[in-house]
Design brief:
Length: about 550
């Protein structure tokens, strides 16, 4: 039947045909006091198109509620026939759907069983260049509630060809009841090559020297089963390494092609991180993506480089430049790519809670300015130190500069530096005296990043003379530019100039309009005078030619 949204199930075995609409959140609980474990198989599932695991999924829990440990998750991109097994006599699963108008369909069945009860000729490990495998009781009917897994492994640098010579399983459109599933690898969690049932003679080929074959049956309609033969064939010559490693200040991404691994005689199951919970995503490639400070990564500091366990090195003296650029009156950060992500901002107070967003930053003369340098990294063992800060009226910092901080020492009487705090370096100072002479001022700071575990690093030594500074150490150095800073009186002057310009423009426009009207009036009067003159002249000529009396000779 079609169960309602969720149910409490107590049968020893049951098939569930589930149909759900949008915005569903349904929980099924399976429990029976029989001192056995539960095997739950989702032999068919169809989620809404393009749905993600975050919005639609089946979550299975090892116990009587959704607060029990999570056994596994099924979603749209699951590349397997999910089979989940409890550790006791209770199991719970929840299905959630998103808001898309779409009918979701699922078929699942479960049964209680005793793990210690073994079925003869059911699964195992097969090695060697070739071999055979058959279903239990072949050529007689296979048992009900059978779940057999065969792992096939041939010599390195080879691939496996699997051919079913005889095949007869219960026929169903989606192979929901009895089926064979074949996987490209040693696991049944991903890499599904195909799922078959009915009567056929299917063949499969792996991409490496390992393959997994699964037989699953339900409680009715058993048939002859199958007989299959596998053989190995050499893989093509060495594949060019197709690996990608990218590092940012807080994460690492490793991409390895499956074909390259296969050419070496390996597959994704041979790859792991120190932390087994950080498993890769597997598509045509094997992809690890994780924060630098997690997944068991280790960090080594040697000289001026930080090396993580996957040889991701942070380069010394890379430059990260952050300069404020105004567009549509909204402040933006234009950032050149650097190895560590470092930014610098002004704040409105010494609480450093509200950054200044306007650009340019208009200030009063002698106003106290609060600056903070921030390191964006998940590595909690890094420390930020403001080594040198200079001011200049030019963004390229030409010959005219003014020292605020030099080698960790305050050079301006108004500068106050705060004790380094994890990923933040902070200081305050008064608006520069030479703001009276220049329209804009820019600030450039040299930032050092050190390992906090090194108690003798440059970041912990504070103000040093030039001689002592030469023997100090740091992990990484970068340079930041921020600005411009301008006096508020310049803002008022600019506003006043703009007002005057607008008034002059209006006055000029009025004058132009007046001149146009005057000229038009003069032209009109001139035309009238000309017309009158022509008429009078014509009238005079007509009078001179009036009738006259002819005199006699």
């Amino acid at each position: 039947g079609v169960p309602r949204c969720g149910a409490s199930l107590h049968e020893l075995n049951k098939a569930l045909r589930i149909e759900l609409k949008a915005n569903a959140n349904c929980v099924w609980q399976i429990q029976k006091n029989v001192n056995q474990t539960i095997r739950l198989i989702f032999s068919y599932f169809k989620f809404a198109p393009s749905s993600s695991c975050e919005t639609e999924s089946i979550k299975v829990y090892d116990g009587p509620s959704t607060n029990s440990p999570l056994l596994g998750q099924v979603c749209n991109d699951t590349d397997a026939v999910p089979v989940l097994q409890s550790s006791s006599d209770s199991l719970t699963f929840r299905i959630t759907t998103n808001s898309m108008a779409f009918t979701r369909n699922f078929f699942a069945f479960y049964y209680f069983f005793s793990p210690e009860k073994k079925i003869e000729n059911c699964g195992g490990r097969l090695t060697g260049p070739n071999g055979t495998l058959t279903s239990p009781n072949y050529p007689e009917r296979y048992p009900e509630f059978t779940y057999c897994v065969w792992h096939i492994q041939t010599p390195k640098n080879s691939k496996i060809n699997l051919r079913f010579q005889d095949f007869f399983l219960e026929l169903n459109q989606n192979c929901q009841f009895d089926f064979i599933a074949v996987y490209d690898g040693l696991t049944t969690n991903t890499g599904l090559l195909g799922k078959v049932c009915g009567r056929a003679q299917p063949t499969f080929e792996s991409s490496s020297n390992v393959m997994t074959v699964v037989l699953s049956t339900d409680y009715a309609n058993s048939y002859r089963g199958f007989s299959a033969q596998y053989s190995s064939a050499p893989l093509p010559g060495p594949v060019e390494p197709t690996t990608i490693l990218t590092c940012s200040s807080d994460s690492m991404r490793i991409v390895l092609s499956k074909s390259y691994l296969a050419s070496l005689g390996y597959n994704e199951t041979h790859l792991r991180l120190n932390d087994a919970s950080c498993s890769p995503a597997v598509t045509d490639s094997v992809i690890f993506s994780f924060p630098l400070a997690s997944c068991g990564t280790t960090k080594k500091v040697k000289g001026e480089k930080v090396t993580f366990s996957t040889k991701c090195k942070m380069e010394n003296n890379s430059t990260l430049e952050v300069i404020y650029v105004t567009k549509n009156n909204v402040i933006q950060n234009t950032t050149a790519v650097g190895r560590y992500n470092v930014s610098m901002s002004f704040y409105d107070s010494d609480s450093f809670s509200k950054p200044v967003s306007e650009s340019p930053y208009y200030v009063d003369l002698n106003q106290t300015l609060f600056a903070q340098v921030s390191l964006h990294s998940t590595d909690s063992n890094l420390l930020v130190f403001v080594d040198t800060c200079i001011a200049s009226p030019q963004p390229d910092f030409g010959s005219l500069t003014y020292d605020l901080i030099r080698s960790g020492c305050n050079k301006d009487d108004t500068v106050v530096t705060y004790t380094p705090l994890e990923h933040y370096g902070r200081f305050k100072f008064s608006a520069f005296r030479f703001l009276q002479s220049f329209a804009s001022v820019y600030l450039q700071c040299d930032i050092l990043i050190c390992d906090s575990k090194n108690t003798n690093s440059r970041c912990t030594q504070g103000c040093l003379s030039r001689q002592k500074r030469a023997i100090s150490s740091h992990t990484w150095k970068t340079n930041i530019i921020v600005g411009p800073i301008r006096l508020k009186r310049d803002l008022r002057t600019a506003d006043h100039s703009e007002s005057l310009t607008k008034a002059d423009a209006e006055e000029t426009l009025n004058l132009q309009q007046y001149s146009f009207y005057t000229l038009s009036f003069v032209v009109l009067i001139s035309n009238i005078i000309i017309v009158v003159a022509v008429i009078l002249k014509y009238h005079k000529r007509q009078t001179g030619y009036s009738y006259q009396k002819i005199q006699s000779s």
